[in-house]
Amino acid sequence: MKPVFESILPLPASSLKAFFQEKDEFDAPWHFHPQFELTYILQSSGLRYVGNSMEHFEDDDLILLGPNLPHCWKNMEQNIHKAQAIVIQWDLDLLGKNWLDQPEFRGIKNMLALSEKGIQFSKTVAREIKDHIIAMPETAPFEKLMCFLNVLKTLSEKDSFQMLCEHNFAIKPESLQSDRINSVYQYVKQHYGEKIKLKDISSSLHMSEENFSRFFSKVMKKNFFTFLNEFRLNIACKLLIETDMQVKQISYSCGYETLPFFYRQFKRFKQVSPLQFRLTYHKMGNPELN
User: Fold this and answer.
1) What CA–CA distance (Å, rounded) separates 136 from 45?
2) Are the C-beta atoms of residues 218 and 229 closer than 8 Å to each other?
3) What band does 210 get if pLDDT is binned at 50, 70 and 90?
């Protein structure tokens, strides 16, 4: 499956696009576009896909994406509240050709170069600029641009961030084939709690096992079962945080056949045991436990 190309039209009288998004759930497919994008999740949770990265997201998720880097946010279940986000998109020549070569923008230029792999900023950084981000969609064009440049400057001075992709994952528009990757996401979302065989997923896409394996590894830079394991572990993290289910029950509900294997995979993925992971989050939410 290949990401869907999205054509973004600039708003009249403005050199960048900033808009508030509110939906029952985030429903955009895995897609890409030639613009940079800064997305702030105000309210929602689920799984975030950027290139070949797949991680749990929640409120105050702040992500900077480079051009043609495929991405989407997906809710795993129906949320009580609306899914809300602020999205800002802009072209490389925002202020004209070579504007980033000016010395005043050196820090911003370096940050945007890193964004080809996707950047996640810490919640502390996100909350520092939150009010400015929220105000931007309703701000007049000139003030919006000034606010945006100040946001970029602030972010470029922070060192509390992480890269999301191991590789440069930008997609060339001419390389588009189909929506197979989105089909893989949907299949795994529906069947992750079951035993999934390579022949099951490949036949659902009308491909041979060999062709599917080659295709998936080429597009995602990882094999399918690594992707499936990461998906299941992200679901397990969500259940550990949001429910009181026993670890054994979570393990089986996520498709793991034995508890010891789940423990080994979880510790390799998170560097802590499932119980330690749950306790850490409970302490974060209840200072009296610290």
Assistant:
1) 23
2) no
3) very high
If 0-12 CB within 10 Å is exposed, 13-18 middle and 19+ buried, where does residue 152 land? buried
- Both 128 and 191 in one domain: the answer is no
Closest to 46 (Cα-Cα) out of 254, 238, 246, 243: 238
CA pair distance 61, 179, nearest whole angstrom: 26
* Judgement on whether residues 21 and 156 belong to the same structural domain of the protein: yes
Per-residue pLDDT tens for 110-163? 999 999 999 999 999 999 999 999 999 999 999 999 999 999 999 999 999 999
Q: Output DSSP code: residue 272.
A: S
The Cα 134–Cα 290 span in angstroms is: 32
Q: Are residues 12 and 117 in the same domain?
A: yes
Query: How many separate domains does the chain show?
Result: 2
**225 and 137 both lie in a single domain:** no
Last residue of a domain, one of 133, 163, 193: 163
pLDDT digits (tens, 9 = 90+) for 211-253: 999 988 888 888 999 999 988 998 898 888 888 899 999 999 9
User: Any alpha helices (H) in 97-170, and if so which ranges?
Assistant: 106-114, 123-135, 141-156
290 found inside a domain: no
Q: Which CATH number belongs to the domain containing residue 186 in this structure? A: 1.10.10.60
Is 215:255 a contact under the CB 8 Å cutoff?
Answer: no
Domain boundaries, position 236? 177-285
